[in-house]
Design goal:
mainly alpha
């Protein structure tokens, strides 16, 4: 009996510590590792001004680099404003939204194939963005930009993951995939065992609710800290608003899960506590102890000794 409460506390503490990890692995496996969900998540970003500016700057630099052999020096400088206006105009068209979704789908498919296939060739993860380049070229040619028809749209392989990082990411993905299956089971089993072995199960249920709320708060804190660290590591501060918009879009589910865990945990803890208070008030008072009435005590009759 004395060991039940410490054992219950240990089991419940482990379960509550696993709650944020369970949410992270489930999110990464079912949200980030699913191409359709990923594309649906990032598709609205095509209308974000920061994302459009970042994409336009990148495409502008690439177009001017492609045109450099044809237009050098002062002529290239004269074309730069025209290219900039044309590219920024393209980012506000439905064709850009189509290209944005197609490019993200192509990159996501290429990365997932490399992470899931152990027999994939060892090398960088590349993606063919020729369809996207073709759409950009058609739009620039329609705007009568000089040399637009000379922009090459051959199947150019663009590396999205360096070769040295593929093996580590593949192992990490396999561990993450296994954790997404086992961590929820372990969390539920530890919580159920902790409540079952507790001497007072209502108190253990209250502690579980508070621990769940604490796990939700830790998850929200981890998302906020991760955003700050991610943006701080970017080499180009100009594109940090676009990276922040992408991070916020991808972690929307995590933030929702953190608030849901916080609300559910507090609700369970409050309901358990109120139920305990109500049950205590409904218990009937114990009857007073009864004592024998005062009076002469009866003694057994004395026996006379036999002669």
């Amino acid at each position: 009996m004395p060991l039940r409460d410490p054992l219950s506390a240990i089991l419940l503490a482990l379960a509550c510590l696993l709650i944020p990890c369970t949410a992270l692995t489930t999110w990464a496996t079912h949200a980030l590792a699913d191409t359709t969900r990923y594309v649906d998540t990032v598709a609205p970003l095509a209308a974000d001004p920061a994302v459009r500016t970042a994409v336009a700057d990148t495409v502008e630099d690439e177009v001017l680099r492609k045109l450099a052999p044809e237009a050098q020096g002062a002529q290239n400088s004269a074309l730069a404003p025209f290219v900039r206006d044309a590219v920024h105009s393209f980012t506000r068209t439905p064709a850009f939204r189509t290209a944005w979704e197609a490019g993200n789908r192509a990159v996501h498919d290429a990365v997932l194939r490399a992470l899931r296939d152990d027999a994939a060739p060892r090398g960088p993860v590349t993606v063919d963005l020729a369809p996207v380049t073709a759409q950009v070229r058609e739009h620039l040619a329609a705007d009568h930009m000089p040399y637009a028809h000379r922009i090459p749209v051959e199947h150019t392989e663009v590396a999205v993951v360096p070769a040295g990082e593929v093996a580590g990411l593949r192992k990490g993905y396999q561990v993450l995939h296994a954790a997404a299956f086992w961590l929820p089971l372990a969390t539920v089993a530890l919580a159920a065992a902790g409540i079952a072995v507790a001497a007072c199960r209502r108190r253990a249920l209250t502690a579980t609710g508070l621990g769940t709320a604490l796990g939700g708060a830790l998850l929200a804190l981890a998302v906020a800290v991760g955003r700050r660290l991610t943006l701080a590591d970017l080499p180009d501060p100009v594109h940090r608003p676009a990276a922040g918009a992408l991070y916020d879009a991808l972690t929307t589910t995590l933030r929702t899960a953190s608030w849901l865990l916080l609300a559910v945990g507090l609700a369970v803890a409050l309901a358990s506590w109120l139920t305990g208070r109500y049950a205590t008030r409904r218990e009937p008072p114990s009857p007073p102890a009864t004592t024998a009435p005062d009076g002469p005590s009866r003694q057994p009759p004395a026996t006379l000794p036999r002669p």
